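Sanity check

After download, print the first record. It should look like this:
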Amino acid sequence: MDVANKRTNSILDLKFDSILTENEKAVEAWLGNTVSELPNKIKMKLSFENYMKYLKQNEDITKTLENYNLEHYWETLRSRLNDYVHNNGIQFTSHNLIKEYNQNLDIYLKNINIRTSYIITLFLVLIIMTEAPLIASTDMIDHLECGLTPPEDCQYEIAPFIQNYIDKKVVVFHPELKQFLRDNNKYDMRIR
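Expected structure tokens:
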């Protein structure tokens, strides 16, 4: 039997567990737009509030929220990103269609831009405080893939688009936050 047939047979022989965990049921319902049919206990697994509670258990996140008076923003964001947005799956997008001839189109787009910037900024801060290597530049990998010796300590450089976002959006959101992120990220990523 050739390698291709062995692989095909091994895939065909897979047995899937038909008993789903509560987390798997929640994801399946989200994908199928049936979250409203779930028992409340399982439905809550998809709530933004549930994610926020989990994230807030991280000491660095709590410290950031307290030191920069972001707790009010955290609570505002938590309440605005309600169950409907996060629990109704792909159906949500069809309820928020704006026609190009709408006289308030510029206002809608500006509001979307501002809200999205705030949300992205908050989550970028959370990533930097918990898993800063996720914002790393690809310089080291690029050098290694080309058979070159990477520059010393290049693993601490951050991706240029992240630096640009910090300079243009994070600083607007909270000017001192950039310095805090520079001084307090666990992996000494070079935020300039």
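If your output differs, re-run the checksum step. Summary of this record's structure: The mean pLDDT is 80.
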